[in-house]
Amino acid sequence: VNEQGYKVLDAHIGAIYGDSITTERAEAICQRLSEKGFATTNVVLGIGSFTYQFNTRDTFGFAMKATSVVVNGERREIFKDPITDDGVKKSAKGLVKVELQNGEYVLVDQVTPEEENTGELQVIYENGKFVNQVNIQEIRDHINSNL
């Protein structure tokens, strides 16, 4: 319990609430926490794009997620597999490649670095630098050539 009389969770425990948080929602969340006797420092609020653009990743049917990371020289697979989900939010895992199979693009995950290099994807941005910059006309030409 803090000096104001609110319950404070242990420092390594907290809640993250980051789905379309507007000013009004943030105030309501803080009010409910206060009414239940909990300090607002127990929660971290994220605004998300909806708050300032009124768009979400679902607006355009697109989301970009990391699937692999190198920490201290060691590659690690990162992924999302919520225990409360029915499987639709499960993400790709590890290194990925996109293959063209029978005229359809197919995502394959958990590939080796060698396999990753054989797919349809190209590195555009790496370690903070553009390594293969393309312009909008090149993208349009590529799309049109594959229609």
Features:
two-stranded antiparallel sheet; alpha+beta; 21% helix; single chain; 4 helices
Which helices and strands appear, and what pairs or packs with what?
Layout: E1 15-17, H1 23-35, E2 43-45, H2 50-53, E3 68-71, E4 74-77, E5 96-101, E6 104-109, H3 113-116, E7 125-126, E8 129-130, H4 136-145
Parallel strand pairs: 1-2
Antiparallel strand pairs: 3-4, 5-6, 7-8
Task: Please provide a written account of the structure.
- With 147 residues, the chain is of the alpha+beta class.
- The strands form four sheets. The chain has a two-stranded parallel ribbon. A two-stranded antiparallel sheet has the order 3-4.
- 21% of the residues lie in helices and 20% in strands.
- The longest helix has 13 residues, at 23-35.
- It has helices at 23-35, 50-53, 113-116, 136-145, and strands at residues 15-17, 43-45, 68-71, 74-77, 96-101, 104-109, 125-126, 129-130.
- The protein has two domains: 1-59, no CATH class; 68-145, no CATH class.
- It is built from four helices and eight strands, in the order βαβαββββαββα.
Provide a quick synopsis of the model.
With 147 residues, the protein is α+β, with helices and mostly antiparallel strands. It has helices spanning 23-35, 50-53, 113-116, 136-145, and strands spanning 15-17, 43-45, 68-71, 74-77, 96-101, 104-109, 125-126, 129-130.
